[in-house]
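Appendix B, Record 12. Input sequence as logged:
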Amino acid sequence: MPDTQISAIICTHNRDTYLGSAIDSLLSQNFAAGFEVVVVDNASSDRTRAVVEERASNPRLKYIFEPVVGLSVARNTGAQFASGEILAYLDDDAVASESWLQVLYTAYQNHPKLAIAGGKVSLLWPEGMQAPQWLSRGLATNLGAYDLGNTIVYIDKPGLTPRGLNYSIRRSFLEEIGGFDPHLGRVGKKLLSNEELQMTELALQRGWQVAYLPDAHVLHNVDPERLKRSWFLNRGWWQGISECYREQLAGTAGVGQLRRGSKRFLRGLYKAIQYFADPAERFDKFVYAYGQIGYLNAAIAGLLTSSKQNKQVSS
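Logged structural output:
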């Protein structure tokens, strides 16, 4: 579309149950200017293509198949085939509010140095289910919950960066840094993350702005399988690995990782005992400690690989 002002992109992998609602929420946006909806099918083996084809009569909709599995790969593919200067990424299991695109587009128009923006995320629970007693507010963020209040916030700490399920980025900035790093971000069932955190770090280092826009609101479906303690432990493990990878990419890896990871592991266990009477906070701290084992595992593997490479070079 030559008049496309903003491109809404859904990267999807085997989630046909929710995908239709995500696409429909974008096609029904009240955005006055030109926009398109790009669906990147990331090697799905379910009914993903059929779900898109059911809506193929809408000229705004574009379907792309990306055979290489990986969220960052799919995001880069979406950017490649999209026409807009502003790229708005919505998860395949999320539902955007009617003014989502308009709020994002207006922010970029009013702030030329805005590189990244995202909005509030509320959780949409399965019918007949609610948050378990052992789920803390902190762990709810692993399900996508994100709320920094009802006013615009300019992010100055990478840890507060917008969630990837409700995320937008200026194309010129994305091209400036060479796209999303494929070493970070989910790959199939490997729950790697931290790609958004890394992007915020790069934006702030280069003098760009990152913003939280409360009115760019999205609802995120909570899959029933994620309401198990085992899912959160697995998520914590991969979060630790992701943090280790991010440090390696930033050039801050080394022996110091063993010290940092060990201290955080002990701190997590101590707090889990401290909050023993509170099931939510106890489990929260235990997941944190468990994640540090993943971090240490990746750090040790990195050190061994580095040592092996150094020996090969010296010989």
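Residues 229-314 form one domain.
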